[in-house]
C-alpha cells in the first residue's frame, strides 16, 4: 500500500478555491480511487485559513471545512511539535535555514506531521520540505506512480 499524502498549503488552497483547479481535483480523485489516503494536516489548515479569513474568502473557507469532513484530518500533538523542534534545530545545524529564526516555521511542523503518520508531503514547494521529509511536487507525483 502506498504511503499517505499529507497536503501542503499550496495544493490545499487549490482544492478549496471556489473554482478548484481541474488538475488538482483529478490528482486527488486518482489518489483516492487507488486507495491512497490524502490527509489535511492542521498546520496547512491554519496557514491557509488565516489567509482566507483576512481576505474574507468565505466560499473558500466553507470548501475547506467541507473538505475536512471528507479527508482525514491530522491534528497537531505535543510529540509532533517536539519532532518539529528537532527538525528545525538539525536543519539549522546543517546550514539549512527554512524560515526566520523567530518564525514559527510551518514547514518543519508540516514535516513532523507527515512523519508522524508515515506519510509524504504533496507540495508545490520542494525546496525546504524535501530536506526535512519525503516530499513530492503533486503535479509530477501522479506521473511517477503510473
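-> sequence recovered:
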Amino acid at each position: 500500500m502506498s504511503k499517505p499524502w499529507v497536503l501542503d498549503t499550496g495544493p490545499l488552497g487549490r482544492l478549496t478555491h471556489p473554482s478548484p483547479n481541474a488538475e488538482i481535483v483529478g490528482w486527488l480523485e486518482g489518489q483516492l480511487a487507488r486507495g491512497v489516503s490524502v490527509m489535511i494536516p492542521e498546520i496547512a489548515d491554519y496557514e491557509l485559513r488565516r489567509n482566507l479569513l483576512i481576505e474574507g474568502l468565505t466560499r473558500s473557507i466553507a470548501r475547506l471545512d467541507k473538505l475536512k469532513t471528507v479527508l482525514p484530518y491530522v491534528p497537531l500533538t505535543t510529540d509532533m511539535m517536539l519532532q518539529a523542534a528537532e527538525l528545525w534545530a538539525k536543519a539549522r545545524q546543517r546550514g539549512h535555514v527554512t524560515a526566520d529564526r523567530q518564525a514559527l516555521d510551518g514547514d518543519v511542523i508540516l514535516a513532523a506531521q507527515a512523519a508522524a503518520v508515515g506519510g509524504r508531503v504533496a507540495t508545490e514547494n520542494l525546496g525546504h520540505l524535501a530536506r526535512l521529509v519525503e516530499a513530492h511536487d503533486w503535479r509530477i507525483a501522479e506521473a511517477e506512480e503510473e
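The two ends are 14 Å apart (CA to CA).
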